[in-house]
Automatic annotation (TrEMBL):
The keyword Nucleotide-binding applies. ATP binds at K214. Residues 50-65 have a biased composition (Low complexity). Residues 1-26, 48-70 are annotated as: Disordered. Belongs to the protein kinase superfamily. Residues 1-16 have a biased composition (Polar residues). PROSITE patterns: PROTEIN_KINASE_ATP, PROTEIN_KINASE_DOM, PROTEIN_KINASE_ST. Residues 187-458 form the Protein kinase domain. It holds the Pfam family Pkinase. The keyword Lipoprotein does not apply. The lineage of its organism: Eukaryota, Viridiplantae, Streptophyta, Embryophyta, Tracheophyta. It comes from the Eukaryota. This is Serine/threonine-protein kinase STY46-like.
């Protein structure tokens, strides 16, 4: 290549010392360069490219195979993405239907409340704030306890429990007065043994004793305005409990957001892990690990102990409603005795009172009235217990045989058309137990048995089962 006087390059080789190439040869050379360039662009880094004049079909075969495999992998990944998108679309459809029905039920309940207000003569107080102020100043209207009197007559309306956050300062004073306030410097943190959405569980040492520390995440308090109230509520509930099968509170560090620690006895495993093995994967028992199903006598013993713990909670005054009873919130000690734990969602209910906090708990164990945002009482725990007992008997996760998302399951549970699959009674020994399960998860809360009736029935079933298997 020679630069001319006008500054342009002459691509013709005019050097007399160089052999002259024909135009055809130049064309072949150009094609070869283009072939090699395109091949280099398509091939992975480090691959060796041979000239097309010396190529052989078997040299190109690995390239074709790799290209074919890459194409198949890309297609497979795209198909998986499409399936994931289809599942997400279906999930959103189910959620839209469920929230639509929930809105309808809420509107119906508001209409009912307005009707009650109209029948009892205080609808105008709800509609006009000025009338409300005048009513409060009127000598004819007053409140005695939880009863409102209007114009000298008691106003009748459902006794719903408003959200009443506990006072953290009050709980702190109570902890110091009763000796269960713990200085964080006394706690020696060790390894993490559990993880939750709002807290992590650590193995620790306190005054020479092995304990479990529920470490509330600082982010939980920063992102949740009622986080301190939630923390205080759990401590207030747990500090009142004195039962063999309820988790024992050792003390607490009450310095949120960084040192909000609940210190309890250290337990080795949960009911969920004991029944299904470690890990979060939900699989049918025939596809899961080789973990054998515990003997029926032991599974019934766990059910009896949970019933005893729940009977103790429900017979307190005011009643303690757990609202999140599930296998992962039931711990086992070294002798396999249960401890009902995690009172973060628990509420106190006086006689005749109902709670009205929706979506409290875990969907597969949640009672229909809670899903539907209706007023509920301690019978929501009885429903959860029925699902747990069925899980203990079958050895399978609830609804593991159903190809549906949590929203669709919750919607069908709320409508009363879906419950977990019952165990097969091949030898006729499970009839009474199946009947008890069905009573416990009855759609009508008033037809569910109280734990004061469930406990003796379970003990009798346990005794009969033991006698039958011994003989």
């Amino acid at each position: 290549m020679i630069m001319s006087l006008n500054g342009t390059y002459n691509t013709n080789n005019t050097d007399p010392r160089s052999p002259r190439r024909s135009n055809a040869a130049d064309a072949r050379r150009s094609q070869a360069c283009c072939w090699n360039l395109s091949g280099c662009l398509e091939m992975p880094m480090g691959a060796v490219v041979s000239s097309p004049n010396h190529s052989h079909p078997h040299h190109q075969q690995p390239l074709q195979n790799r290209g074919h495999q890459s194409l198949e992998q890309s297609i497979s990944e795209l198909e998986q993405q499409v399936r994931d998108l289809e599942r997400e679309v279906q999930k959103q459809k189910e959620l839209r239907i469920m929230y639509g029905k929930r809105m309808e039920r809420t509107q119906d309940y508001l209409k009912y409340c307005l009707q009650v207000a109209q029948e009892n003569g205080f609808l105008h107080l709800l509609m006009n704030p000025k009338d409300t102020q005048e009513c409060l100043l009127s000598p004819h209207n007053f409140m005695i306890g939880n009863n409102v009197w209007l114009n000298g007559s008691p106003a009748q309306f459902p006794a719903l429990v408003p959200s009443q956050p506990s006072d953290l300062d009050l709980i702190s004073n109570q902890a110091r007065a009763n000796g269960w306030s713990i200085d964080p410097l006394e706690i020696e943190m060790k390894d993490q043994i559990g993880r939750g959405s709002t807290a992590d569980i650590y193995r620790a040492t306190w005054r020479g004793l092995d304990v479990a520390v529920k470490y509330m995440s600082p982010e939980f308090f920063h992102s949740n305005p009622s986080g301190a109230a939630f923390f205080a509520q759990e401590l207030h509930t747990l500090s009142r409990q004195r039962h063999r099968f309820v988790l024992q509170l050792m003390g607490a560090c009450l310095q949120p957001p960084d040192r909000a620690w609940v210190v309890t006895e250290l337990l080795s495993t949960t009911l969920k892990e004991w029944l299904h093995g470690p890990g979060k994967a939900r699989q049918p028992r025939d596809l899961a690990s080789s973990l054998p199903l515990p003997p029926m006598e032991e599974r019934l013993a766990r059910a009896v102990e949970i019933a005893q713990a729940m009977q103790y909670l429900h017979e307190q005054r005011p009643r303690v409603v757990h609202r999140d009873l599930k296998p992962s919130n039931v711990f086992l000690d070294d002798a396999l005795h249960v401890r009902v734990a995690d009172f973060g969602h628990a509420r106190f209910l006086r006689d005749g009172e109902y709670a009205l906090t929706a979506e409290t708990g875990t969907y597969v164990y949640m009672a229909p009235e809670v899903i539907k945002c209706e007023p509920y009482d301690e019978k929501c725990d009885v429903y959860s217990f029925g699902v747990i007992v069925n899980e203990l008997v079958t050895g399978d996760h609830p609804y593991i045989d159903i190809d549906a998302g949590p929203a669709k399951i919750a919607m069908e549970v709320a409508e009363g058309i879906l419950r977990p699959a019952l165990p097969a009674d091949n030898d006729g020994q499970l009839g009474e137990l199946i009947e008890l399960i069905c009573l416990s998860w009855n759609q009508d809360p008033s037809l569910r048995l109280p734990f004061s009736s469930i406990t003796p029935k379970l003990k009798e079933i346990q005794r009969k089962f033991a006698e039958t298997n011994v003989s």
